[in-house]
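To whoever is covering the structure queue this week,

Two jobs came back overnight. Logging them here so there's a record in the thread.

Job A:
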Amino acid sequence: MGLRELKRERTRRLISDKAFELFTDHGFGRTTVEQIAAAAEVGPSTLYRYFPTKERLVLEFVEESLFGALNWFRDQPPELDLPDGLQSVIERVLDQLEQNPDRVRAVYELADQTLSVSASLAEVTWRWRNELAVELTRRIASDSVKFTTVEFTAALAAGTVMNIVEVVVQTWVDNPDGTQVKDLANEAMGLLRGGGFPLPTVQP
């Protein structure tokens, strides 16, 4: 990463961090873009270049965690065992979220309190699920299997992965004192590897 890109990333992170501080202290609706810009010592126009909406300030962390794991999956070789690959996708997402527990819980709290944040969070997760389904369709496509069957299987698998992530994170958020995300993830992985969730395999 060059110096200019590094500076941009630092500015982006500073804006996001200051926004979360203000959202936590004053609420999403009562925090203005001007207040966030002032706290980050940038102009409102600069803030809008990085984050077109206030909702994006809330959800960027979640989006980066989800799509970072998806981009990793896209880069894997075609012969990758799909259950192994999808398990790694889940683990990568949860590992990123677990490293930032305060931010994750703030996101969910804001989503509970604010309809626009809740709607934006749903849009991000469903867009991720759809793009994961597209990648799975590409990987399991075969001349011997009808395309509609492949798409259907890929959509089911992507929905399963999305639901695992959502249920694990929601359970973890709802039980901050006693539940560890790794324990929940291991339980989900046991079901995944034991056939509790149907997942596709690469066609020979």
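Job B:
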Amino acid sequence: MNEPGTLNPSPLSSLSAEPEVSARPTETDVPVRPAVSAAPPSPPRGRFARLPHLAGRSFIPVGLFARLPLAMLTVGALTLVTSSTGSYALGGTAAGAVGIGSAIGAPVIGALADRHGQRPVLLVAAVLNALAVLALIGTAWAVPEDGSFPAALILSAFLAGGSCPQVGPLARVRWMALTARGKGKDADRDLDTALSYEGTADELTFVLGPALVGILASVVAPWLPLAVAVVMTITLVPAFAVHPTHKAVPVRLIPGANSAPAHAAGTSAKSSRAARIHAAVSLPVLAMVAMGTFFGSTQTALSSFSASFATSEIAGLLYAVLGVSSAAAALSVAYWPRSFKPAARWLVSAALMAGLAPLLLAPDSLGGMVGVLLLLGLPVGPVMVTVFAIGGIVAPAERLGTVMTALASGIVAGTALGASVAGQLAQHAGYHAAFAVPVAAAGALFVLGVAAAAVLRKHTT
């Protein structure tokens, strides 16, 4: 028990503190007096004010800035390699290698975190990633001049992406563990709030990251953004790794490695359940691929669109408009009624997104496009928050980190796919054709939402 007048410990203190036994005077030692006890402070009532109460005040800023290097890596590789070699093709290839490496490496890091715990995996990933990015910086200035393929450069770019610490997905795993300590509606509401914040944090970092790369590369030197990313990785990622919240996530052995052979009937039942789980998990992952396709194709189509009116560099500012409205809408999910279930949220938000996406074909001015992007961003944030929430619902507890990182890698893979397809269409048929890709991606999100509603109903019954 707490002494009278002392504060209640935070939820995190129970992760490491042992119960204390203190000597107290007996009734025969002192006169009996009425007990005077201070009421324990109640948790903050504001939705987002409760998050520091759950995780500790340092968790939010550390988790926010520790994911910034990932947002800087792809654009930083593109900028550095293009500047050092003078080849846009080689710069794009290096950026693509970063994306492919991240898409492959993220689920591996998530699976290792599930098996061995987040702290050791993130600490090792931080060191490996820092070395890989330093190798990328070095090989970018040592590209062969004889026109031969720069294998060392592409390999270092791939390793830089593959080893990048997955702070955002693993932060979501921690929030799920922390909010699971609550009860009933409060726990559900806290999880919605935490995931809303995480969606906004991702949006902000993927807007701020490329902007920071552009400022540092243009004002100082093209290698500086990646050097700054190395410094942030080697300092902030370990701080996130050792934060006490990692203790809230239990380390579970992946079942089946050491288990005895099951009875045939039991094996059949387990196989059927595994098939349902895979179907339930695959739909959110595919949705994130579609979401990434929407992002990548929109960025590329906006480059072609803005080049028709001014310069292609304006595309970054236009895309930031979409990010701002998306981030604001993501925050609003915390205040949506509990009766509005995740499957219904996905359907409604994706339907709105699919209905608004064709407006991208309409503007014939920069001002008109700004208005469309502000409007279109409103359903984007809620779709992302909801898909991550559904991923957490359908994921087996022992593979939660794997699923969360797979969702994040789906966005990366989809972004590369969308940028590639939209780039080809923009090159040969103009920006109107390129905008057809995000329209199709939004439609795919709605179709996947319909399928997920049916699968989720079976999964939860």
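Note for Job B: Confidence is low (pLDDT under 50) at residues 1-40, 253-265, 267-271.

Please reply-all if you pick these up so we don't duplicate work.
Q.
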